[in-house]
Structure prediction request, 165 residues.
Amino acid sequence: MTIIGRFWVTAEGSEPVVLIGDSGTGKTHLATGLCLAACRQKRRVRFTTAAGLVNELIEAKQQNQVRRVMAKWQKYELIVVDELGYVPLADIGAEFLFQVVSDRAERAALIVTTNLPFSEWTSVFPNPRLCKALLGRVTDRAHILDTGKESYRFMRTKEGRQKAR
Prediction:
């Protein structure tokens, strides 16, 4: 077993990490740290937002390059999908995201950051069956870390105002 930060890649497959919490609670910061740890182990890593991934695949579809772009995504040993839940996805975007996650399930590491509880993922994924299937793949054997509700950015701003008084 190889430990990369807080997630594991084993001979049997990988275990996803889901960082869930309100905006400003450190999800992206933690995911970045895990990426850095993986890079230091000479792993191929890709960090993107959910919207960025979907936009890349939609552009590839318009240029008849989906197969090539999907093959590129499969080469990474770790993918971070940041900010899932901030922007609702159209049907095609949700299907592309599902395809990337599904193709990687148990074979390569995945980190997802989200501001939504799982019960609200249907607000991002319009197709309930697709949403359920995606949730199943993302949460299967996952390490789910709740970063809470208190925004570090808000606390820092609040502390700055108190010091200024």
Remarks:
- The first strand starts at residue 2 and ends at 4.
- The beta strands are 2-4, 7-10, 13-14, 17-21, 45-49, 78-84, 109-114, 143-148.
- The chain has one domain: 2-164.
- Residues 2-164 form a domain with the Rossmann fold fold (CATH 3.40.50.300).
